[in-house]
Amino acid sequence: MSKYTEDDLREELKTKEYEYGFYTDIQSETFPIGLNEDIVRAISKKKEEPEWMTEWRLESFKIWKEMIEPDWANVNYTKPDFQAISYYSAPNSKPKYDSLDEVDPELLATFEKLGISLDEQKKLAGVAMDVVVDSVSVATTFKKTLAEKGIVFMSISEAIKEHPELVKKYIGTVVPQKDNFYAALNSAVFSDGSFCYIPKGVKCPMELSTYFRINQAGTGQFERTLVIADEGSYVSYLEGCTAPSRDENQLHAAVVELIALDDAEIKYSTVQNWYPGNAEGKGGVYNFVTKRGLCEKNAKISWTQVETGSAVTWKYPSCILKGDNSVGEFYSIAVTNNYQQADTGTKMIHLGKNTKSTIISKGISAGKSQNSYRGLVQISSRAENARNFSQCDSLLMGNECGAHTFPYIEAKNKSAKIEHEATTSKIGEDQIFYCNQRGIDTEKAIALIVNGFSKEVLNKLPMEFAVEAQKLLEISLEGSVG
Amino acid sequence: MDLKDKIVSSYLAFEDHLDDNSPLHDIRNQAIKTFEEKGFPTKKEEAWKYTSLKSILNQDYSVFPKQENALEYRDVKKYFIHDIDSYKIVFVDGRYSSHLSQTTHDGIDVCLMSSALSKPKYRIVIENYFNKAATKDSLSSLNTAFAGEGAYIHIRKNKLVEKPIQILHFCSGNESALMLQPRNLIVVDENAHVQIIERHQSLTDNPVLTNSVTEIFANKRAIVDYYKVQNDRETASLIDNTFISQKQESHCSVHTFSFGGKLTRNNLNFFQKGERIDSTLKGVTIIGNKQHVDHNTLVHHIEPNCESHQDYKGIFGDNATGVFNGKVVVEKEAQKANAFQANNNILISDKASINTKPQLEIFADDVKCSHGCTIGQLDESAMFYMRSRGIPEKEAKALLMYAFSNNVLSSVKIPEIKQRITKIIANKLGVNIGFDL
Lengths: 482, 437
What we know:
The complex is a heterodimer. By secondary structure, chain A is of the alpha/beta class. Chain A has one domain (17-429). Chain A is built from twelve helices and 24 strands. In chain A, strand 3 and strand 4 (136-140) form a beta hairpin. Chain A starts with 5 loop residues before the first helix and ends in a 6-residue tail after the last helix. The model of chain A is unreliable at 92-98, 119-127 and 134-139 (pLDDT under 50). By secondary structure, chain B is of the alpha/beta class. Chain B folds into two domains: 3-273, no CATH class; 378-437, no CATH class. Helices cover 22% and strands 37% of the residues of chain B. Chain B contains ten helices and 20 strands. In chain B, a hairpin with a 2-residue loop joins strand 1 and strand 2. Chain B starts with a helix and ends in a 9-residue tail after the last helix.
């Protein structure tokens, strides 16, 4: 392997097939394709939702009809035909499981293939999981432990039934229905998702996590996540996803809303590995996600993401720093390969006094992919002593890919301190030479360098997740990360 | 009738005086069509997101000044860099003022666009260069349609121009509102070297809008130093479109000093069409009141082994707004490119604001590209240091701000310009110190 060069790596990346591509045959109940008011009503009815929720969905649908698909992002793709998608698909039998033995064995096998077998997770990680397969939550673990603390962790459809007052109060407050095209679509047709409420002063004793997977052919997945951390509470929330290999483009338009009340802290980590399409750029998931968090006084929201999948990514996890002394953080690694396109970044809206935000973004592009960082740092005129630090680094492998940076910085207060820096480079020959000379072969050297390049972000992931993140980097840049 | 309609209809009148057989005629017709289609840019366009032209387009500008206006040298002397010998091309209300100017045809052509466009001996140059670098955006097209007067500078091979060339545009204020569209063409042949200073100055408080286009062609190993001094009245607005096309091993630098004007928009575009090119873009902006300065730069790296350096400093007081929109594009072929971009800003008032967007678009892997951008305040410990040594607050602040912009000044190659700029800065900051440190 001593002759392993960057070219070999590039070659390997090109030919590397998606490892997690498989399709589980679970009988699903799927709605007819297309979208109209009746479908929206039907989804709502199917989920036995109260009247106000149905109305809310219909209102969103009306708003969505008036909107046009945004095209400002630095990505090119065939626009999905929204009338050719089935908007609801649920695993057929949905008994409430008390133990894992009752779960469809085929489903369990799926998780094992993904390396996230439930019992293993239970034993090793102490992670309570709300597993989502095609939109309906089928298993929730550790619910009892959480219930003792007063923590509510369930699917959003259950929450609509069991805690309507909380859902009604907070849904759409951070990402309003009319926020953008995909958020409006999601508000109208969201199938399921997770709901989490941490009561006042409670530190959630374990990492909460959900896994999203797209399973049924031709169904877009419209997840809705709502996390509320009440005053003085703390929660770390993990979200990870892998999707089966498919030729047609699948649409994923999720909405995540985080609400951190006074002195609360939310840590939200994502590992995203939807199917990126094959080496010719055929297929792959369209990932158009709206994620946003609201920080009240002294609150903190921290987004960490590892983006390795999807054919097209359009995603800007943002923080609205409304309360004084609130803190927003964004740590991101985006890896693109073959024909993948990613336009991702963050928005930090400083409204309160003494607010602080940190942005660390690492982009790695290989093959013929395009990787863009797009970020906004906005300091409003009332945000005294706001502080921002942004760093965007890009690593290019080969001369057919592109790395782009579009930072928007708007300051309206004289006491603001903003620093932004960005660099673009390739793996230095001298760095590789240095490693080679000390007996580290080139493959390991590249691994070492890419690892080091991403370290700042990987370090921010919770322990359990860091392992999976490493794994995903491995798949995306096989042979480079050890 | 809004300004756009007025301009389009006055083009019809203007067209009557033109030579139908001239190759320029087609270019003009095409250009006015482009403008008619696109109109004035609005905030909906990404490149104009932070700058609205609304406030300056509501005037009833006259497009062609009615009378000739003469100025006395003693009245406008202070706007010249008068302590050095230089060639001068001076325009008053868009018309050439021969008694204020000093042109030449001795080995170099320092003369007028109007004569270059009409005289056959310039025809080849015009055909080869005119409108070849300018992009087809609406404002440049508008200028192209009406292009008639401006500076024409052609430096022949191996010629080192020993004195700088000053281009001055005065607005006499005899019209109640005036729109000017100067068009400059600068061609610098192989191994030639030239220094140019450009300034737009309004003499009264009548509103004036200048939509200027300058095309600069730097051939092999040419060296071009360009200085833009913008310290106009608060009723004057300037849209400056500069396009620089560089051939191999040429060095071009543009320094933009923006201290005044109601709205100033600098569209500065560099196209690197050869290897081992060096491009420098630097600017200092110090504004207050309700002024607005927008720097919109583009460096297009097309060939390998090229460098570009950008360094823009801004100090914004009162209700002023600053915009920096810098874009670096590195094409696939432009390997070993070295692109650097920095934008540092200080806000000294609660109502001032700054919007900055340093952009990188990179398609080549073996490159070194970086950009940095900061918004901050004056260093309190440095202030304390000076105050404790008896330097009054105002002066201490001024010293710090001068030091802040000094990076840009240090690369100015004409000492007289440096002195002049230093004086303007002191004036702007309201202090009476020479900064001759």
